[in-house]
Design brief:
The protein is α+β, with helices and mostly antiparallel strands. The chain has 3 domains: about 35-125, Phosphorylase Kinase, domain 1, CATH 3.30.200; about 130-315, Transferase(Phosphotransferase), domain 1; about 400-595, paralog of FGE (formylglycine-generating enzyme), CATH 3.90.1580. Helix content is about 30%, strand content about 20%. It has 13 helices and 27 strands. It has helices at about 70-75, 80-95, 145-170, 205-210, 220-225, 230-245, 270-285, 300-350, 370, 375-380, 445-455, 510-520, 525-535, and strands spanning about 35, 40-45, 50-60, 65-70, 105-115, 120-125, 130, 180-185, 190, 375, 385, 395, 400, 410, 415-420, 430-435, 435-440, 460, 465-470, 470-475, 485-490, 490-495, 545-550, 560-565, 575, 585, 590-595. The strands form 8 sheets. Strands 1-2-3-4-6-5 form a 6-stranded antiparallel beta sheet. The chain starts with about 35 loop residues before the first strand and ends in an 8-residue tail after the last strand.
Length: about 600
């Protein structure tokens, strides 16, 4: 997986970028170097055309930071423009340092240091190692799901607008707003990279400089005369981002550059159609080609979107409880009607008629999934049963289980573990959890396809999304460029290429992962379970940059996370996610508590 660096405007999902994490710096700073007695260089993160970014450590406060250096070699190559580049760099520092807002990246320091006789200028910022706004924008778009779009707007886009609004109140026009310049601090977006910012007390530097913004998000007036743009240029960029979040990633085409964009609302009169018609008007006004016809400021854009999104979510909340009860009731009635005869047949198959069960223990809970659990030990005729006289319970104590869906689970002995609930704080949560089983590998494409085909009569496929009722389970299409693992053809799900069958399934929503787990009478891991299994070395299939779903059953609602391997020696720190998110590097595995396998003689 390509490592990305948000601090220098890297592109996550485009084919090329001016910044590359694999590119070596022209004048590298060695690890261990301390600048001005405060900032110890740890490692090089990425380099762009104009500078290098390092992960550094602030010695007196014991925290990691991002340290951005404008490349001395680049300045030497500018043939007389060195002062111009230095002025641009200082502009970024001044613009960011003026603002204190939770949705704007914080600047800690700006200084000049001497390294081997060369002067370098650097800026020290918050270090956010996770991702950018692009990571919560599906490549094919959120689509025309009113609830999902309204939730995305309230969770991510409105905070971005609040950050930009604070920027504008400081008299600054950003001029390079795009998903890659909005960093994600967990679930909190933060506006960053003010390299093209224009402040009222300064004149534009040069025309060539003013067109360095990203053209797909740039209004025409910025391209023609960047020195004279105002806050409406940022409004245009924000409108383009919202349009892209709904309809899908902007392709490398010139046909819509500088153009007004709009939605194609569903042709009906229901609440969703009304919602998207109103949203279409907002987006068209924000991306009007002529500045005087455009939404005049970010405050007005934010107010319109806030009212629209909150109204949609409030209406949805009123309907949710009754609809959920109806769906769950129908679902469980159907499941029970199917499970009773299947369970009886399964017991008969494994144990023979009732008279032959004497002296043997049935499988636990007698659901089809659990009735089909066959541990390695039992398959060899040596299943150990360990009971106590006090409670007359026996426990399956096999070290591994192989289940009906092909999942292979490994026992994890219970114990104490710790994890970091909030990466902005150093507080750790310690938990003692009982023994459980966890899958040795993430759920594969072929196994998830089998699950979808089992319930194919209850689901529908619309706009590359697989729905159960109004819930999206998984998104089809490209998981990444050139990789489309799952196809839906003639009413059936298939793997597009046999070599993809055993790869981890991705782009599954949290609800889609939970539906799979519950279908086989298992669950998703909690952060504590995931952390303990990882510490025990029982988490195969983990790769750099790959994360997995986990959750907690809190009140009043579930809380979902993406779980990933921490850096060496660091505690596991999950990222809070929305249940409808579908990401190209996010899969899942399931767990089963050992207590669930208790049986009585």
């Amino acid at each position: 997986m390509t490592v990305t660096n948000e601090y220098t405007s890297m592109t996550l999902h485009t084919g090329s970028s001016s910044t590359d994490a694999s590119r070596k710096p022209r004048c590298p700073l060695p690890s261990g170097l301390v600048l001005n007695g405060k900032w110890e260089i740890i490692e090089h993160i990425a380099s762009g055309g104009k500078g290098d970014v390092y992960r550094a450590h602030q010695k007196n406060l014991e925290r990691n930071v991002a340290l951005k250096v404008i490349s001395p070699d680049f300045l030497d190559d500018q043939e007389g423009d060195q002062a111009l580049e230095e002025e641009r760099f200082r502009r970024e520092v001044q613009a960011m340092a003026q603002i204190r807002h939770p949705n704007v990246l914080q600047v800690f320091d700006y200084d000049i240091a001497d390294v081997e006789g060369k002067k370098i200028e650097y800026i020290v910022m918050e270090y956010l190692p996770n991702s950018t706004l692009r990571s919560v924008m599906p490549i094919e778009g959120i689509g025309y799901s009113r609830q999902a779009v309204a939730r995305w707007i309230t969770d991510y886009f409105l905070p971005v607008l609040e950050g930009i609004e604070s920027v504008h109140k400081s008299g600054i026009v950003h001029r390079d707003i795009k998903p890659e310049n909005i960093l994600m601090d967990g679930a909190i977006p933060k506006v960053a990279d003010f390299g093209l910012a224009q402040m009222p007390q300064k004149q534009g530097l040069t025309q060539s400089y003013d067109v360095l913004g990203t053209i797909f998000y740039m209004p025409k007036e910025q391209f023609e005369d960047g020195a004279s743009v105002d806050a409406r240029a940022d409004v245009y960029s924000l409108g383009r981002i919202l349009y892209e979040a709904i309809t899908g990633k902007i392709t490398n085409t010139k046909k819509n550059i500088f153009k007004q964009v709009g939605l194609v609302p569903p042709q009906s009169t229901d609440a969703a159609a009304v919602f998207f018609s109103q949203l279409d008007v907002i987006i068209r006004q924000a991306t009007a080609e002529e500045p005087q016809k455009r939404t005049p400021n970010v405050h007005e854009l934010r107010t319109s979107l806030h009212s629209l999104a909150i109204a949609a979510l409030d209406e949805k909340a009123q309907q949710r409880s009754e609809r959920f009860i109806r769906i769950r009731k129908r679902f469980y009635i159907t499941v029970i009607a199917i499970l009773i005869p299947v369970t009886l047949l399964t017991i008969y198959h494994f144990y023979g008629p009732p008279s032959s069960l004497s002296g043997r223990h049935p499988h636990p809970n007698a659901t089809p999934a659990q009735s089909s659990i066959i541990s390695d030990a039992e398959s060899k005729g040596s299943m150990p049963y360990v009971g106590t006289a006090k409670d007359q319970k026996t426990h399956l104590v096999a070290s591994t289980l192989t289940e009906i869906d092909g999942a292979r689970l490994q026992m994890v002995a219970g114990g104490e573990t710790e994890w970091q609930p909030d990466h902005t704080r150093q507080e750790l949560r310690k938990e003692t959890i009982p023994a459980y089983y966890i899958e040795t590998n993430p759920v594969s494409n072929i196994r998830y396809i089998s699950f979808l085909n089992d319930i194919v009569s209850q689901i529908s496929v619309r706009d590359s999304a697989v729905y159960f009722q109004d819930t999206v389970l998984v998104l089809l299409g490209e998981a990444r460029e050139g990789y489309t693992p799952i196809l839906y053809q003639q009413g059936k799900f298939i793997v597009s290429d046999p070599q993809y069958g055993e790869r981890p399934v991705v782009r599954v929503t949290a609800e889609g992962a939970l539906a799979y787990a519950h279908y086989y009478n298992r669950d998703l891991p909690t952060p504590a379970q995931w952390s303990l299994a990882m510490k025990a070395g029982q988490m195969a299939g983990l790769t750099n940059g790959f994360a997995e779903w986990g959750y907690e059953q809190g009140q009043p609602m579930m809380k979902f996370f993406s779980l990933a391997s921490p850096q060496a020696g660091a505690p596991m720190c999950p990222i809070v996610r929305q249940k409808w998110e579908s990401l190209p590097d996010l899969g899942f595995r399931t767990v089963r508590p050992l207590a669930q396998l208790e049986v009585r003689p």
